[in-house]
Design brief:
Blueprint: H1 10-13, H2 25-38, H3 42-60, H4 76-80
Helix pairs in contact: 2-3
Length: 89
């Protein structure tokens, strides 16, 4: 995992939302062990993992710039539209 980014300042905590997470026991056990190793709360490790996943999804869907000409009359939006994320398998 990347270095810890524990949220502790007023500007960051204003953007935090509480939620319930359902995950495999083995995954939670791994994250709990990591939290104990670092001496931080499990919520800090979970927040970090969520931030990392969200950043990866955001980076994967960054717009790609290209120049092209349509010969069939379709707009660029029709030709280049991509889904936000892959459907679950």
């Amino acid at each position: 995992m990347l270095e810890s980014r524990i949220m502790n300042d007023a500007t960051t905590s204003a953007a935090v939302r509480r939620t319930t997470v359902t995950a495999r026991r083995s995954s939670l056990d791994t994250l709990e062990a990591e939290a104990r190793r670092r001496g931080v709360a499990l919520t800090a490790v979970l927040a970090e993992a969520i931030d990392e996943k969200a950043s990866a999804l955001h980076a994967a869907r960054r717009p790609h710039l290209g120049i092209a000409r349509s010969t069939d009359g379709r707009s660029a939006a029709e030709v280049t539209a991509q889904p936000i994320a892959q459907p679950p398998s």
